[in-house]
Amino acid sequence: MGRRSIHFVASPGRRDDPAVEALVERYGQAPLAEADVIVALGGDGFMLHTLHRMIETDLPVYGMKTGNVGFLMNRFEKDGLSERLCAAQEVSLYPLKMRAETTTGEIHEALAINEVSLLRQSNQAAHLRVLVNGAVKVEQLVSDGILLSTTAGSTAYNFSVRGPILPLGTEALALTPISPFRPRRWRGAVLPASAQVSFEVLNPEKRPVSATADAFEVRDIARVDIHEERDTSLRLLFDPDHSLEERILNEQFL
């Protein structure tokens, strides 16, 4: 494959960075409508922002780490970018689609690349009912919240609340309670990616709960329905020696 037309995007704190300016000067800045690939410069948070913002373009995104966290990023180098893009391996990720209903009946929808999480809004623990494929699996979960994670997001917030790491290609989702109190023995579940998951908020007036799909938040939730959105594919590019699959595998041995 010949030289690829690149559209560079950079996190706000890096846009005036001389290293970023040097990349644009060397490789050019293709208009988004004419680009073959998007190169995102920053950390994981900016990569998630870029994927959400560019989701309609269907362009592959190649990240280079200039931020503090770079699980989704490749190493930063100014030389050989064209060759690296041609040799990069593509990984397709499918986001979660959240449909959230508030206590006033408003409906909000959003996509999540990492996870959909429910969190208590006050000092009162959340009381939640958990359903999978329409069947009640936990009648009353008393906790700070709960989350449903993709494989790519399983090493992020999910892992920090003791959820399992899911290798890419497992076609699974991680359902993980956040600081659970009751049931005392329930610590979550690994579900097939085809599962339809719902959360109902019990007594939402006294125990208000918010729902978050990555950075998109809805407050005062009554019910949330979640499924994997197979009609939407996110295309990430990784250097052959820095594959996302290998990184997720290695995280289990740190």
Automatic annotation (TrEMBL):
SUPFAM superfamilies: NAD kinase/diacylglycerol kinase-like
InterPro entries the UniProt entry points to: ATP-NAD_kinase_N (IPR017438), ATP-NAD_kinase_PpnK-typ_C (IPR017437), NAD/diacylglycerol_kinase_sf (IPR016064), NADK (IPR002504)
GO MF assignments: ATP binding; metal ion binding; NAD binding; NAD+ kinase activity
Entry cofactors: a divalent metal cation
Protein localization: Cytoplasm
Keyword Transferase: yes
E.C. no: 2.7.1.23
Reaction(s) this enzyme catalyzes, per UniProt: NAD(+) + ATP = ADP + NADP(+) + H(+)
UniProt-annotated catalytic positions: D44 (proton acceptor)
Major subcellular location class: cytoplasm
UniProt keywords, alphabetically: ATP-binding, Cytoplasm, Kinase, NAD, NADP, Nucleotide-binding, Transferase
GO biological process annotation, one example: NAD+ metabolic process
Record: residues binding NAD(+): D44, G45, H49, N114, E115, D144, A152, T155, A156, Y157, N158, F159, S160
GO CC, one annotated term: cytoplasm
Similarity section: Belongs to the NAD kinase family.
Function statement: Involved in the regulation of the intracellular balance of NAD and NADP, and is a key enzyme in the biosynthesis of NADP. Catalyzes specifically the phosphorylation on 2'-hydroxyl of the adenosine moiety of NAD to yield NADP.
UniProt-listed HAMAP family: NAD_kinase
The protein's name in its UniProt record: NAD kinase
